[in-house]
Structures are given as C-alpha cells and as structure tokens.
Design goal:
Number of helices: 10
Largest sheet: 4 strands, mixed
Shape: globular
C-alpha cells in the first residue's frame, strides 16, 4: 500500500475528506479522498454487445486474486453457474435468453408461438435448418429480409432464432461509495486510481457495508464473516498492468483505461450501434449526474437494466445522512424542551 493509501485509510472515511460530497458529481474523486497528485481515474467499460459468455474474465479474476470456488451450481434457467456477484464471485457473466431480434441484424423476425424445444429437435433435418448439412439458400429461394447466398436467420417455414444477452457484471467502484462511508474500521478505502478496495486484514465482519451497497455487490464470505469484492486488481494497477479480467477478455467486451476516455469511447459505440439499427443500445452508470455520481465501472446494455439484474435508478444510500441527523437533532431538542417544560410547570 502506498503512503497516500495509508493516509486515506487513517482518515474518518471518504465523507470526511476535504471537499467531498455525499452525492452529486465529483470530478476529482481521488483528490477528495486525500490524493493531491493522483493519476487519472481508472475504470471499466463493459460493452455487452460483443460479450460471448466465455467466462474467461471469471476464471482470470479467480486465478489472479485466489478467489475460492463458489459451488458451480447451474441455475436451471441458463448456462450461468455462478448465479450472481458475491464474496467468492467478483466477476459474474449473466446469460439472458430473449425471444426478440438483436436490433437491425434480423429484420422482419417475429417470435409468436415459437417452440424452442421443437426447433431444437428439427436442427439439421433440412437443408435450410442450422446444423449438420445446412446449406445457404440460393438467390431465388432466400426468404424476405435475408441476404441471398448466406445462411438465413429466418427459415422458409417461418422458424426464427432467439437472442442471447450476455454481460460480465462487477463492482461499480461508485463515485460516492456508500460501503466506504459506513465502514467503521477503515477497511474500505479509496485508492489513488479512484477505485474502492477492501483490506481484509482490517475488516471486522460487521457487515454494515452489505446493505449499504445500492447494487448488492459486496458480500460476506461464509465461514469467514469478512467482506470481499473486486479490487479492480489494485496490485496490478500499481505496476502499470491492466486488470486480469480485461487482459483475458478475447473480444474486448471489458475495456480498461482512464474513465473519461472510456466514456467518450462508449458514447461513440452507442452511436455506431444506433446507426446499425440496434436502437435499444444504451449506457448504464456512465453519467456523473446519476444517484451515485457515476460509476467507475459502467456498461453498454441492449435492454433495460432490470433485464440484466441491475437497479434502474441506483442511489447512494448515505445521500440523506445529513438530513437524517438534522431531523434526529431536532427531535432530540424537542424532547429535551418538553422535559424541561414539564418540570417547570410542575406544581410545588
């Protein structure tokens, strides 16, 4: 740990740092946490439109950080065998199956009355069906909306394909991190890169941070009691290396770099997808004006956040602390005044 990190940990928490707010935009996160000459804020941009669900990020994260095996229990709903983020799953790849086309890539596709299991039984049974023996349609026989001479997404009998939404979820490293604000021991601290890291040897297992997280990311390890989560590979950042998950991603779905550059790149990617007809593409967590002041790890999604298991409008849970203390003080003063008045008016 650097001297700056130690100084930040010894403070009373991020909320007590000079110039830091509990909510709203914060352009200099590291500076507000006590780093006067901090490097640019680093983060993740996850482009779910190119995620192939390979789980290389999950494996790389576990290997580099020595994260224990987490059960590998299939949900029964998809190929997802980690189910969600937790103390033993710092990266989680979600598999979401939908009966709808991927933007403009499958024009004219309808899914009414489509039977997935019947379609699976028919695979490879006709020249037009994907599977062994499938052939490309001739220019004369290509269905409407399908380019001639290529495998069509729509078969002559009207059968259509589904789409998979895949997304690698991770700790958001919020601008205003409620987990950090409520930590009584300083186990959670802000690094000079603007990320939020847990010191396991300082954590006392109180669990205050678990309900404080608006994303439900941080979690206590069974049989241990301490909390664990993504560190954005703080040890690798310190020597100029990129996080293990981003290094392992074969499609660059997980992109790492200075946060401002990633936001510009993400905006350009959304514009590109919209131009290609994928009008549902949107960014999630990139705006400094959202309820957590913007995330250090944000996403390009192809559907509503709820589809991916993300809250639609996350808000830092410590935002209303000043108002709560004000109301509590007012109530205490009122009770004290009533007590004094009752004694003054008491007959002698």
């Amino acid at each position: 740990m650097t001297e700056g990190s130690t100084a930040a940990v010894n403070g009373a928490g991020e909320a007590a740092s000079s110039g830091n707010l509990l909510f709203g935009p914060q352009p200099n996160v590291a500076g507000a946490a006590g780093y006067p000459d901090a490097p640019p804020r680093m983060g993740f941009f996850t482009d779910t439109s190119v995620c192939i669900g390979c789980k290389a990020c999950e494996v790389a994260c576990k290997e580099w950080n020595s994260v224990p095996e987490d059960g590998l229990e299939l949900t029964g709903m998809s190929y997802d065998n980690t189910q969600g983020l937790g103390a033993d799953t710092w990266r989680h790849v979600a598999f979401i199956e939908q009966r709808k086309p991927l933007g403009g890539q499958e024009p004219g596709v309808g899914h009414g009355g489509f039977d997935v299991f019947e379609a699976a039984r028919q695979l490879g049974t006709s020249p037009s069906s994907p599977g062994p023996g499938a052939t490309a349609p001739s220019p004369e026989s290509a269905p409407a909306g399908a380019p001639a001479g290529e495998i069509s997404p729509v078969s002559p009998d009207g059968r259509t394909e589904l789409r998979w939404l895949m997304s690698s979820d991770v700790c958001k490293h919020c601008t205003h991190a409620a987990c950090l604000d409520v930590c009584p021991t300083g186990a959670l601290f802000r690094t000079e890169f603007g990320t939020v890291v847990v010191q396991e040897d300082v954590c006392n297992g109180c669990g205050y941070c678990v309900p404080a997280c608006p994303y439900g990311v941080i979690d206590q390890r069974k049989g241990d009691g301490r909390v664990w989560k993504c560190t954005l590979c703080y040890d690798r950042l310190g020597v100029g290396m990129e996080p293990a998950c981003a290094k392992a991603c074969p499609t660059d779905s997980i992109q790492f770099g200075p946060l401002e550059e990633l936001r510009e790149r993400a905006a350009a990617r959304v514009a590109q997808l919209h131009a290609a007809g994928v009008t549902d593409a949107r960014l999630y967590g990139e705006s400094p004006d959202d309820g957590v002041g913007g995330d250090g790890a944000f996403f390009l999604l192809l559907d509503e956040p709820e589809v991916y298991g993300l809250p639609p409008d996350p808000v830092v849970t410590t935002r209303d602390l000043p108002a709560m203390w004000k109301h509590a003080a007012t109530a205490a003063v009122s009770l004290a005044a009533l007590a004094v008045a009752s004694f003054v008016r008491r007959p002698r």
